[in-house]
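Dissemination and training. As part of the outreach component of the grant, students in the summer workshop were shown how a complex can be specified as a set of sequence lines and then modelled as a single object. The example used during the hands-on session is reproduced here so that future cohorts can follow it. Participants entered these lines:
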Amino acid sequence: MRRESPLVQCVTNYVAMNYAANVLLAAGASPAMVHAPEEAGEFAELASALTINIGTLSSYWLQGMHAAAKAAHASGKPWVLDPVAHFATAFRRQAIEGLLALKPTVIRGNASEIMALAGDVSSGRGVDSGDSVERAEASALALARRTDAVVAVTGVVDFVTDGHAAVCIAGGSELMPKVTAMGCALTCMVGGFLAVTPQQPLEATVTALACFGVAGTQAAQASNGPGSFAWRFIDSLAALNGDVLQAHAQVARA
Amino acid sequence: MRRESPLVQCVTNYVAMNYAANVLLAAGASPAMVHAPEEAGEFAELASALTINIGTLSSYWLQGMHAAAKAAHASGKPWVLDPVAHFATAFRRQAIEGLLALKPTVIRGNASEIMALAGDVSSGRGVDSGDSVERAEASALALARRTDAVVAVTGVVDFVTDGHAAVCIAGGSELMPKVTAMGCALTCMVGGFLAVTPQQPLEATVTALACFGVAGTQAAQASNGPGSFAWRFIDSLAALNGDVLQAHAQVARA
Amino acid sequence: MRRESPLVQCVTNYVAMNYAANVLLAAGASPAMVHAPEEAGEFAELASALTINIGTLSSYWLQGMHAAAKAAHASGKPWVLDPVAHFATAFRRQAIEGLLALKPTVIRGNASEIMALAGDVSSGRGVDSGDSVERAEASALALARRTDAVVAVTGVVDFVTDGHAAVCIAGGSELMPKVTAMGCALTCMVGGFLAVTPQQPLEATVTALACFGVAGTQAAQASNGPGSFAWRFIDSLAALNGDVLQAHAQVARA
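and obtained this result:
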């Protein structure tokens, strides 16, 4: 990632933009927040990967998401879908169907989002999950098989599957859900690793989650609350290298 | 608040979104930034409270604000109006009239904003106040009576009234006006407390302001400037509990 | 700047808004992020200076940029143009031509952006520069003469010219390109100094760059990474005064 500094296009929500860009910069990527329908497709052809997050959705942005995802798909670029609170309103439910049809390479969400996306009953409310990752494992497997995408359910222990193999990633900190946009930034981070290893979406996703796990654990050790955690996490990510990751990542076949 | 973790819908400005979401998370609420006319009304029926802030206004967002405020009003949910710089342009003056007609439960602004909203002469310029809170007290009382809303004027010492009772809240720090979106985040915080005590808008507003006062004083003690204050304030809010609040809040009947 | 606390209108991108507002507050200015076509022109007449940044461009925002720049030009107010990644898409290329025609007082960009704007071949990709400042000096001189604007190329050592005189500004830190929106915030800072010395655009630009250089060097000394640098930079800016600036600024005629 640091050697290639891949250009990653992020169509993400207003809340996450700044933090997600700083996360990608800390990891060594070159983020570009380009969303308008007038240019999102053209830009997706330049970028090495694309991420789409429906957190602060509107019709205009949805057009840009379609333009970008179509261009990414057409030019063989990987893209990640983050279905924030997709079950909350009719507008979101319809939007997410359209985006799923554009064949995301990876889908990342919390347990409630993934369960609802798989057609199962969930306890989600707003943008926060009401379900445990464990409860979402079967939904994730089913969703991965149906969509031919890698599916990542993130929470206390993350679960990633391509419909066949499955991996669990531990680490992180209980402060992470107290910092807004942490999940959205993780989606962008998955895009960063997809950009450098586009043929290995499962491995790229696991690596991104492992980075968040290790940096999260490190940052929490010196933090007194979510305010200090947020910037220490960026420092930890920026200091992360292959050796530290290898030594501290808590990754296991599920 | 921490026990109920209420879902609070915030239609706020681009500058404030991230910081306001972190403030609500630190206080124990579940913020959701949902603004599009396509879904803002539907979402307002799910949320326990709504906040509307016109900081970075546009016609499209104004439609979403109306949809959300109408739905909140129709379903008996409390909502807070933050009339940022409403006197600055014709577009804002017209927008604020339309929003006031939708019956906010609480109106929070700086002294110049409240004075201008009450029809009095103010010295506001841009988003900063040119008047003292004391000068705005009579305007706040008049505005509260006319609109049947709780009115909060925030500044060095805050003033809150429902048109009859009035409360002053001291505390905070002179660093607070040096951090952007602090007032906008406070508006969201009022929404958080309204969500858990919807029948007591005066008390909810005073509690939110007292939290900001106590956390602000604490954060300032260890800060070297507005940069460090911003994240220490989040840490202080996250560490706040009923006992600390009771012991340090500077609240007095006016 | 601190004495006058000028009102600076910033039409900037979603990523930069919060950080840029905090930078201007730390420097003593009063930032206002007002972008909608419905009011951007009217507000530009109230403000002392305007900054326009096309980072997260859309058609609607472009209308607001035109309204604001026209009003600024008509009322003799200085304005700064930040042509973020203007070469990346047809939409941006067209947008930047239209904005250049509205006569910016100052143009600030990275080396690739300025080279491309001058019609020269550049190695820009996304929002990051692929060229050194030194390589862009001739382009900056040509662009300044053609547009009658002050042109600032920022990077390791900044280069500023009005087409005749030229100034180099050193300082800062290698952490600065690792914090998103640092360049966008600098553009707003230039707007702040233009607001107080509108007749001296070259000096105003150099002063803004010198402030960033000195505060950046100071902030980096105590930082462990881009996360801590971001808020320490705000603290350093807020503590900066004329004496410190004079003592530490690394400014030289080129």
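Residues 83 and 221 of chain B are 31 Å apart (CA to CA). Students were then asked to discuss how this feature might be tested experimentally.
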